[in-house]
Amino acid sequence: MRxxxxxxxxxxxxxxxxxxxxxKLDASVTLLDVNGRIVWQNALSVKRVGDRRGTSFVGLMAxxxxxxxxxxxxxxxxxxxxxxxxxxxxxxxxxxxxxSISFGVPIRDENGVSGVIAVGVPLNWSDDVLTTPExxxxxxxxxxxxxxxxxxxxxxDVLGIAVETARNHIRAVLKRLGVHSRVAAVARAHELGLVxxxxxxxxxxxxxx
Length: 209
Description:
By secondary structure, this protein is an alpha+beta fold. Helix content is about 40%, strand content about 20%. It has helices at about 5-15, 20-25, 45-50, 65-80, 135-145, 150-160, 165-175, 180-190, and strands at about 30, 40, 85-90, 95-110, 110-125. It is globular, with a radius of gyration of 20 Å.
């Protein structure tokens, strides 16, 4: 694989390397070969699931998630333009089940797809039975807009409130759900059934002319 890419050059110009970034990224990063064997893990991946190099990535998954994980992996292998985004449960060395949102993309060389890189964004709760937090009507409105991908300013415009007020509503939703990011809030909202499984068709506010 050629390392002399535009990204690599830009990082080197700033005194960094891609390896540095992947090690410091607050996400599990795993490189798989075409057979699904793990050939590289960053530090957070090793911390979460142990050093699993040389083993199948399927072994990281909770049993009920293995069929879909295998299907997604095959899809990435046979469609070089594909990408994957799934919520999964991985099992740590001590047997603890941990939730993650997993993103996967195929890696190509001159002969075709040569592997898959998977990035897992850790969610800050375990796979225990979850209790549904009580949300106010305003929190639910804000959450639905977050699920539909609206920015803070767009949420403010839809709700007819100031941007800082919208920001406070978002903070309140994250706190009530026990998460620290919008991605995690969306994942947990779906898990708890707080929002529809399919995004609502919203009309985004028009930019002022």
